[in-house]
Design a protein that fits this description.
369 residues; seven-stranded parallel β-sheet; elongated; six-stranded parallel β-sheet; Rossmann fold; 14 helices; alpha/beta
Length: 369
C-alpha cells in the first residue's frame, strides 16, 4: 500500500508529531509511506530526518506562506499513491481539490482541531472518500450536519511521549529543585503554544482568583512560546504572581515537566482532544480543563479530571482550589489515569486502528477499480 501524507510545515505541534508518527508506523508495517511538505524546515525537521521518512518539499525555500503548494498535483501524480491523508487545516483545504483531480484515489481529510474550520476545509470534508476525526464530539457534530456515518471514523490521538517513567523520581526532584518547589507545593503545568486561542490569560486570571482565597503553596509552570508571552508576563507581574508563575519557553522534551508537576491545567478553546492532556493522563496527573470539542474524552470526569464549562472563571478557580488541596483526588488520578490513557490512547493501539482503517479504504479502492 502506497500512502502519501500531506502536511504544510513541521512546526512543534500535535498534528505535525502525528504526521511523523503515522509515517513511521506505516513504514514499520511494510507500507510505502511518503510525506509531502509545503515548506522546508521546522522544529520537527530533525525528527523526520532521524526517522528517515521519505519526503518531498514543494517550496524550494521557505516563503513562510503556509498555503503555497507549488506542484502539489504533479507531485501526487508522480508518486501515484493508493491513499492520500491530509493532516492539518492547511493541507485539508486542498483535500477536496485533490479528490476531484484523482477520483480513483482514496483521499482522507482529518478533523482534529478546536479552531475555526476554514470554509475550504469544510467544503473538502464533503468531497473526500473519508474523514478521520480525533474525538466523538466531532463525529456527533458531523452526523448532525448530514455526513454519512460510514464516512466518518473516530481514532483518538496517540500518546507520543519521548521518554518513559524509568527516571521519573529523578526528573521530579530536579525540576522541583529548579523552581524551589517544596514537598507540599502543588505544581500546576500547562504545555501549549502561547497564542490567544489557548486562553492562557484566562488561566492566569483563574490562578489569580484561586490565589486570593487560599493559603496553599503553589506554582504554575507554563511551557511554550508565542505572541502572548509579553502579555502573560505583564499580567503575572501586575497581579503579584511573578514569584509563583514560571515561563519555560518551548521544549521538545516535556517529560521533566510532567514528572515535576501534580496537576495539568488548560483553559484552551481551540483544542479537540489535546495531546497535552492525554500525555498528562499517561503521566498520572490530575486534569483541570475547560471543556472544548471533546476535552472531557481525555479523562474520567470527576475522577482523573475536573472539566469546567467554558467562560466559568469562578468554577475554574474552585476546581484549582480542590485540585491543590485534595491530595486523595490527586493520588486517585495518579493511580487511575495511566491505565486509562494506555487503554484509550496507547500508541500501539492507535497505530493499529489507523492502519486497519487505511487498509480497509485501500481494499475498497481495489474493489471499485
Amino acid at each position: 500500500m502506497r500512502i502519501v501524507i500531506i502536511q504544510d510545515y513541521l512546526r512543534m505541534g500535535g498534528t505535525e508529531r502525528q504526521s511523523l508518527f503515522l509515517a513511521g508506523q506505516l513504514l514499520a508495517a511494510g507500507h510505502d509511506a511518503h510525506l509531502i511538505l509545503f515548506r522546508p524546515g521546522g522544529c520537527l525537521w530533525a525528527d523526520m530526518a532521524e526517522a528517515e521518512i521519505p519526503h518531498t518539499v514543494l517550496q524550494r525555500f521557505d516563503s513562510r506562506i503556509c498555503f503555497l503548494a507549488p506542484g502539489l498535483m504533479e507531485t501526487i501524480e508522480r508518486l501515484h499513491p493508493d491513499l492520500i491523508l491530509c493532516m492539518g487545516r492547511t493541507a485539508n483545504c486542498y483535500s477536496g481539490f485533490i479528490q476531484r483531480r484523482f477520483p480513483q484515489t482514496g483521499v482522507i481529510s482529518t478533523l482534529r482541531t478546536g479552531k475555526l474550520v476554514f470554509p475550504l476545509h469544510y467544503w473538502s470534508l464533503g468531497q473526500v472518500r473519508a474523514v478521520l476525526v480525533n474525538s466523538n464530539w466531532w463525529k456527533r457534530r458531523m452526523l448532525e450536519r448530514g455526513f454519512a456515518p460510514e464516512s466518518v471514523r473516530v481514532i483518538h490521538n496517540p500518546v507520543m511521549l519521548r521518554k518513559g517513567v524509568e527516571n521519573h523520581a529523578e526528573l521530579r526532584a530536579e525540576m522541583r529543585a529548579h523552581t524551589k518547589a517544596g514537598p507540599e507545593t502543588c505544581v500546576f503545568v500547562a504545555v501549549a503554544a502561547l497564542r490567544s486561542g489557548k486562553r492562557h490569560i484566562e488561566l492566569l486570571d483563574a490562578m489569580r482568583r484561586f490565589a486570593a482565597h487560599t493559603d496553599t503553596n503553589w506554582q504554575l509552570w507554563i511551557v511554550g512560546m508565542g505572541r502572548e508571552l509579553k502579555r502573560l508576563r505583564r499580567f503575572t507581574k501586575d497581579n503579584g504572581l511573578d514569584g509563583q508563575v514560571h515561563f519555560f519557553g518551548q521544549m521538545a522534551d516535556t517529560a521533566p515537566f510532567y514528572a515535576g508537576a501534580d496537576v495539568a491545567v488548560s483553559a484552551s478553546r481551540e483544542d479537540s482532544l489535546p495531546n497535552f492532556l492525554i500525555e498528562a493522563q499517561a503521566k498520572g496527573l490530575l486534569l483541570v480543563a475547560t471543556e472544548c470539542r471533546g476535552v472531557e474524552e481525555c479523562c474520567i470526569p470527576g475522577s482523573t479530571g475536573l472539566i469546567i464549562p467554558p467562560d466559568s472563571p469562578s468554577l475554574f478557580a474552585e476546581a484549582l482550589e480542590r485540585a491543590a488541596t485534595d491530595a486523595d483526588l490527586r493520588n486517585q488520578a495518579a493511580t487511575e489515569a495511566p491505565p486509562f490513557a494506555e487503554d484509550h490512547f496507547g500508541a500501539a493501539r492507535q497505530a493499529a486502528l489507523t492502519l486497519a482503517f487505511l487498509e480497509e479504504l485501500a481494499s475498497g479502492n481495489e474493489r471499485n477499480a
